[in-house]
Write a structure and sequence with these properties.
Elements: H1 5-9, H2 15-22, E1 31-34, E2 44-46, H3 50-57, E3 67-69, E4 72-74, H4 76-91, H5 137-146, E5 149-151, H6 158-165, E6 176-179, E7 182-184, E8 186-188, E9 193-197, H7 207-230, E10 234-239, H8 242-251, E11 257-259
Helix pairs in contact: 7-8
Length: 263
């Protein structure tokens, strides 16, 4: 809102301090904050919840999908990279060549020869990014796969998209959500629930066609449920017909099926 003056004035401060002091300068009508890591006190809220915004932005690492600007996902890693580049530029005029060295911990092995195509990335300094302890590669990969990323709806089925968008407390209406390699139709962040929507005119089908449809849908739904559970999400299936719900539950009574009254 201030043309970046606050950020420029506080650029020498650690990242959490900068966020706290300049939070007031954000356009809160255009920003939403989503706690993808579950570490903040509120699961999901608008930008009016200042505490959540500071919690998300001041985290040691900024995650994809944490900041949403008018429907466009701002990738947190790009923000960090820009800050690193600024820090590198800022330090060059003030530090002579002899002092312009980056300390390497004694426990680290000798670095390999960098590729000419790779751009050097300065390491975080001081308290800007507090250490969070070692993270196993598999755990880091799991977190990356499980970060919910809003994406465009697949296909052009207007009815399907409309039913998904109107799911109560849908955190990203107008979008699918990409989690663990799969586009889900909706996500309720407050309850960490992913949705798959089916808009079949099930009551008009013949008995044989109903059986074929249910048997073809069931393995996919069970697979999607496992993908959601692997990332700590619940999973629900939305259908338009009570008959469709009954038919699905006959195949798997553990499936959470909801008749979409709004659809």
């Amino acid at each position: 809102m201030d043309g970046g003056r606050c950020v420029v004035g506080e650029a020498s401060e650690p990242w959490p301090v900068l966020v706290e002091r300049c939070f007031h300068a954000l356009d809160h009508d255009r920003l939403e904050f989503h706690d993808s890591t579950g570490r903040c006190t509120v699961a999901s809220a608008g930008a009016a919840a200042v505490g959540l915004g500071v919690c998300v932005l001041a985290a040691p690492e900024i995650v994809v999908g944490a900041v949403v600007v008018t429907g466009v996902v701002v990738v947190g890693f790009a923000i960090k990279e820009a800050l690193d580049a600024y820090e590198l530029r800022r330090s060059r005029p003030e530090v002579g060549p002899a002092a312009e060295t980056r300390p390497v911990p004694e426990t680290m092995p000798a670095p390999r020869e960098p590729s000419p195509k790779q751009r050097p990335k300065p390491e975080p300094k001081g308290p800007d990014f507090p250490p969070v302890g070692p993270i196993e590669t598999s755990e880091r990969e799991r977190r990356r796969r499980c970060e919910p990323i809003p994406v465009r709806h697949l296909g052009g089925n207007h009815l399907h998209n409309q039913c998904a968008d109107k799911i109560p407390n849908n955190s990203f209406p107008g979008r699918d959500v990409f989690v663990n390699g799969k586009n889900f139709d909706a996500l309720q962040l407050a309850t960490r629930t992913l949705w798959e929507v089916k808009t079949d005119n099930f009551d008009t089908y013949t008995a044989d066609l109903k059986d074929i449809v249910v048997r073809s849908q069931m393995p996919k739904m069970q697979h999607e449920r496992e993908l959601a559970r692997a990332c700590g999400f619940d999973f629900k299936v939305g259908v338009r017909s009570a008959t469709h719900k009954v038919a699905l539950l006959k195949q798997d009574r553990t499936l959470n099926v909801v008749v979409m009254e709004w659809c």
